[in-house]
Specification:
mainly alpha, two-stranded antiparallel ribbon, 12 helices, disordered C terminus, SPPL3 protein, Preselin/SPP, aspartic endopeptidase activity, intramembrane cleaving
């Protein structure tokens, strides 16, 4: 979904054509983290270190990790709910910000979205229901995709290729070294409920906080089987990383469309049919993601074992994208950073 982010000007602009799911966007440019080549190379290494820490020291860090995850999920889900809350409060509440001293100033929509998010996290902690965990995981996915950006196809290829190797190694080969599938164990291991830990530390009695369930952390989406006997899992990294690539190609489609409109140039090289020129990079990559996800699901059913989803998602998204970019003559431009080569005073659609 496209996000047009400009929190600084949203109080001044009254654009009736804007949708409830869009934000206005210049002031968050400083908050957006652009991944460079070095970060793309070292991110799989950092993820491997974090995985090993969770594997060896899970009992020691599980409560701290659960609390940190709950806080991040609260903030992320509040960000996800904010457009809806802005739409609901717009008719009956002014956009003036309410001061909370050193905590800052917030609008009524921001307070409402944060309150709803806190309520959802508390219900999840008390019940541990998988639907609530999936909702929090979706909030984390949306927040990460909104605030992280891939600047070029080169960085995209480095990042996704490194994460593919990371995913394949820890799913298929970690058992030969650690006598256990590290990725599966960390992903499926439930954590102690902080309420249970708190009641034991404070000696509140056997009936206080002891009936709360252990928590499966929202680092994944889970889907129950038709019989309800087991759950299928999809890590949020398998959503976020291809999602960043989809956002990159959608921004490039918008950039190219505007560049062609400004220069009134004819579309594409002469050896490319007009039909292929009409196919956007976004739709090509999105279809590849769908086919890759479907292939990963079928492979998991056939082998009856966990599959590294990026093993299927990366080839089905990157290879069609690279092929189409080469045929259209855009590969050289996409490989660099095309969005820095054009400056304009008009407002861009930020993804």
């Amino acid at each position: 979904r496209s996000l047009n982010m400009d929190f600084e000007n949203q109080d001044k602009e009254k654009d009736n054509s804007s949708t409830a799911g869009s934000f206005n966007g210049n002031s968050t440019n400083n908050s957006i983290q652009t991944i460079d080549s070095t970060q793309a190379l070292f991110l799989p290494i950092g993820a491997s270190v974090s995985l090993l820490v969770m594997f060896f020291f899970f009992d020691s860090v599980q409560v701290v990790f659960t609390i940190c995850t709950a806080v991040l999920a609260t903030i992320a889900f509040a960000f996800l709910l904010l457009p809806m809350c802005q739409y609901l409060t717009r008719p009956c509440s002014p956009q003036n910000k309410i001061s909370f001293g050193c905590c800052g100033r917030f609008t009524a929509a921001e307070l409402l979205s944060f309150s709803l998010s806190v309520m959802l996290v508390l219900i999840w902690v008390l019940t541990g229901h998988w639907l609530l965990m999936d909702a929090l995981a979706m909030g984390l996915c949306v927040a990460m995709i909104a605030f992280v950006r891939l600047p070029s196809l080169k960085v995209s290829c480095l990042l996704l290729s490194g994460l593919l190797i990371y995913d394949v190694f820890w799913v298929f080969f970690s058992a030969y070294i650690f006598n256990s599938n590290v990725m599966v164990k960390v992903a499926t291991q439930p954590a102690d409920n902080p309420l249970d830990v708190l009641s034991r530390k404070l000696h509140l009695g056997p009936n206080v906080g002891r009936d709360v369930p252990r928590l499966s952390l929202p680092g994944k989406l889970v889907f129950p089987s038709s019989t309800g006997s087991h759950f299928s899992m999809l890590g949020i990294g398998d959503i976020v990383m291809p999602g960043l690539l989809l956002c990159f190609v959608l921004r490039y489609d918008n950039y190219k469309k505007q560049a062609n409109s400004d220069s009134c140039s004819a579309p594409g090289p002469g050896n490319i049919s007009g039909r292929m020129q009409k196919v956007s990079y976004f739709h090509c990559t999105l279809i590849g993601y769908f086919v890759g996800l479907l292939t990963a699901t079928v492979a998991s059913r056939i082998h009856r074992a966990a599959q590294p989803a990026l093993l299927y998602l990366v080839p089905f998204t990157l290879l069609p994208l690279l092929t189409m970019a080469y045929l259209k003559g855009d590969l050289r431009r996409m490989w660099s950073e095309p969005f820095h080569s054009k400056s304009s005073s008009s407002r861009f659609l930020e993804v």
